[in-house]
Specification:
The chain contains six helices and three strands. The protein has 210 residues and is an alpha+beta fold. The protein has a domain of 26 residues. The termini are far apart. GO terms for molecular function: DNA binding; transposase activity. InterPro entries: Transposase_32. It comes from Pacificimonas flava.
């Protein structure tokens, strides 16, 4: 795998540099200096020193099946809770699909020891610094608003009309200092008339106070 990673790194960087020399790469904004070949080579220099990890094996049903398989991981976890059947001293038992079998016999059950199950599950966890595919592009959560506004300016498209929601009036009730909820005013007393205390136990029982 290390040899394959070095080969893929060389081919990838060579073809990226060829696209740059052919003028097929465009850089804007803060990346504009990368249009200069010297700056571009300096930018690629740290990448050449990193170890690239490449995992390749022949697909069972062609590249279309690979794309369909990878697309499911852009918005789902490696295994859903509904596929987990049992956890005991023998290991973790779960359901899986064996696509080499016929459709009627495709659902199979497998039991793995806990450490092997965790190892396989962690193969689907992205390394630190990586994000899922849906986090990139114009609709990335961190820069969605700025990118869409910039795209509208470049395309000379007006901002879509939005239905302005009527703002609710501010709640005049004071917030409670402990929980932050709104206090409900039951009764208001005037300054010159202090509030009357609760009746005494003697008054409630009907016996006069001594």
């Amino acid at each position: 795998m290390r040899v394959l990673g070095a080969l893929f790194r060389r081919l990838f960087l060579t073809r990226v540099l060829a696209l740059h020399d052919a003028g097929k790469l465009a850089f804007f904004g803060q990346l504009a200096p990368l249009a200069d070949r010297r700056f571009f080579l300096r930018h690629l220099s740290p990448v050449r020193k990193k170890r690239w990890v490449v995992y390749v094996k022949p697909p069972f049903a062609g590249p279309e099946a690979v794309l369909a398989y990878l697309s499911r991981y852009t918005h789902r976890v490696a295994i859903s809770n509904s596929r987990l059947l049992r956890l005991d001293e023998d290991g973790v038992t779960f359901r899986y699909k064996d696509y080499r079998r016929s459709a009627s016999d495709r659902q199979q059950v497998m039991t793995l020891v806990a450490d092997e199950f965790i190892r396989r599950f962690l193969l689907h966890c992205l390394p630190r610094g990586f994000h899922r595919i849906r986090h990139y592009g114009l609709l990335a959560a961190g820069t969605r608003k700025a990118h869409l506004e910039r795209a509208r300016q470049l395309l000379a498209i007006a901002r879509p009309a939005t239905n302005e929601m009527t703002t609710e009036p501010l709640d005049p009730r004071p917030p409670y200092p402990c929980c932050g909820g709104r206090m409900v005013v039951i009764q208001t007393f005037q300054r010159c008339h202090p509030p009357r205390g609760p009746p005494s136990a003697a008054a409630l029982s009907g016996n006069p106070a001594p």
